[in-house]
Design a protein that fits this description.
Layout (H helix, E strand, L loop, with lengths): L1 H10 L17 H8 L4 E5 L9 E6 L2 H11 L7 H15 L9 E5 L4 H7 L3 H15 L4 E3 L3 E3 L11 H8 L3 E3 L3 H5 L3 E9 L3 H13 L9 E7 L4 E4 L2
Helix pairs in contact: 4-6
Length: 238
Amino acid sequence: MRGWWREIGGLVLPVACAGCGSPRTSLCGECRRELYGAWPCRVRPSPEPPGLPPVCAAAPYEDAVRAVLLAHKERGVLGLAQPLGRALAGAVDAVAPPGTGTGPLLLVPVPSTSRAVAARGHDGVRRVAVAAAGELRRAGRPARVLPVLRQRRAVADQAGLAARQRLVNLAGALEVAGGGARLLGAGRVVLVDDLVTTGASLAEAARAVRAARDADSGAPLAAAVVAASSVSFEINRN
């Protein structure tokens, strides 16, 4: 019942911009530009966790971008999935440009815990990934969402944990679901998430995907996110 009410509420036109509070719009032009009008670019956590693939972010996690992400994920404003998906699609294009790799783009969402999904009433990352895949297809790039990662053990809440603690907390926590390994070989895999802080979640997701794929698979992994911390990350605009 709770999820149903969130679905209905998220489709109702908000009375104020989710980014800045401007009236009579769900997301104003200025906040849209902050979300997907300036970046994307490569980001690198400091310190960088072992095994982290190249990561591109659509925007820095601050101001309007932070507000929009929180409104979608925590308050269930589901109408924001489309602009967030457009931002994520731009980051995917940047980290896996057209003409590189073979086959379609396979967007693999980093899974939230079942506890978090139940509390929020929706899977925000998967919803944004679906919107991003639609944006990419409309731009002429074959893409689909491949939700093959799952939690194989319980983990503690990442909030408040330092970078090293997050790595320990997530080590070995993810796996590719049965039958997923075969699907991973059908195209270029891009791990996707809404936010990257220390890179621990993406590094663990990459480990799980590499473990499931054939040992001789030389296909490179990449990762794309909506936002990255501008404090804990070095930014490479090249």
